[in-house]
Specification:
- The protein has helices spanning about 5-25, 30-50, 55-80, 85-110, 115-135, 150-170.
- The chain is mainly α.
- The longest helix is centred in the first third of the chain and has 24 residues, at about 30-50.
- It is globular and about 50 Å long.
- It starts with a helix and ends in a 9-residue tail after the last helix.
Length: about 180
Amino acid sequence: MKHIPNILSTLRILMAVGFAIFFFNHMYVESLVIYVIAFITDLLDGYLARKYNWISDVGKVLDPLADKLMLICALVCFCLNAWVPWAMAAVVVLKELLMIIGGAWLYKKKVVVYADFFGKFATGMFNVAIVLTFLKNALNWEWLGISNLVVLSIAIICAIIALVHYAKANGLLPSKKS
């Protein structure tokens, strides 16, 4: 049972591939369903890992990797369809690469970085932005007139704040001395 969170994370990695396959076959509703299922399994694997103490070193790597792959996959697909500007996706990809590099470096030092408020908020905003992007572009419907690009911009800003916070908190950037 303790491997369930890791199995869910592995499934999310595979779901990123399924997402792209459906997306490029213009099966947008199916892609959206995969994205939503991936999000739900992300919540479930985190809940199970914490509740039952099924946290593992493999899970500490797989879970954020699965999240990053799904987000980058969705944004690249959107860019290829001209639904989202490439510049926005490039900022996210660069930020995620920095997180992976920093996370690997800290992992070698036996330091595990956990999500803070800004990281969790950014993740939530990214998920909302992805859904809004589908609604606007695949279904030609804007929910309450909310712009997917505004929500994506907020997510990117929060993600950058989280990156800086993580870097400072873990000694990767100099911090102010009192």
